[in-house]
Design goal:
- Residues 17-51, 126-181 form a coiled coil.
- Keywords: Coiled coil.
- This protein has 197 residues and is mostly helical.
- The chain is 96% helix and 0% strand.
- It is built from two helices and no strands.
- It has helices at residues 2-62, 69-196.
- The longest helix has 128 residues, at 69-196.
- The radius of gyration is 55 Å and the shape is rod-shaped.
- The relative contact order is 0.07.
């Protein structure tokens, strides 16, 4: 039962680790995708800002108005502000994803450490139980050997007892026979004595 529980826990932890690794890989790919999107967004913002500047300059030229220094500075500042906002959003998203990936990696390392400690403890427990089982088997074999020896001794004793009983019966039969013979001789001697008196 303990071995089945160990195997179940091992499989569950392996699945958990595999899932976390897939999630980390997925987040890393997503992070790379967001970086690429950030670069593309920066390029698009730069291109749109450039187009905006050119369009505003073209409008000024078509209206026969000379662009003033203040207007050019306003357009340039607007472009820079848009770029800074896009960079800030991208950097914030990148930072969030970096923290999430780091947290997942930390969680994965904790799970792996926990699994390694559990595996070491389980192996030590199995080794201890294996030693105890071997000692118990040796003790059982020793007791079985003693029981076999005792049974053999008991069987030998029973055989000897049967031989002694048989010998006793033979002796008792001979004794009864001799008593009968003696009784017969005693009776005939008494008869002889009575005859001679």
């Amino acid at each position: 039962m303990a071995m089945e529980n160990d195997e179940y826990c091992r499989k569950a932890l392996e699945q958990c680790v595999a899932t976390l690794e897939r999630h980390v890989d997925s987040l890393s790919r997503y992070n790379n995708q967001l970086r690429a999107e950030l670069r593309t967004s920066k390029q698009q913002v730069a291109a749109l800002s450039q187009q905006n500047v050119l369009r505003e300059a073209a409008e000024l030229c078509t209206n026969n108005q000379q662009p003033t220094h203040w207007m050019l500075q306003s357009v340039t500042e607007s472009k820079r502000k848009t770029e800074r906002q896009a960079e800030a959003r991208g950097a914030s998203r990148y930072q969030t994803l970096t923290h999430e990936v780091a947290a997942l990696k930390s969680h994965l390392h904790r799970k792996q450490d926990c699994w390694e400690r559990y595996d070491r403890a389980t192996k030590a427990e199995r080794a201890s139980l294996t030693k105890q089982l071997a000692a118990a088997k040796a003790k059982v074999m020793q007791m079985q050997s003693r029981a076999d020896t005792a049974e053999a001794s008991c069987n030998s004793f029973e055989r000897r007892l049967q031989v002694v009983i048989q010998e006793k019966q033979n002796v008792e039969m001979q004794l009864a026979h001799y008593k009968k013979k003696l009784h017969g001789k005693s009776a005939s001697m008494l008869a002889c004595d009575a005859f001679f008196e």
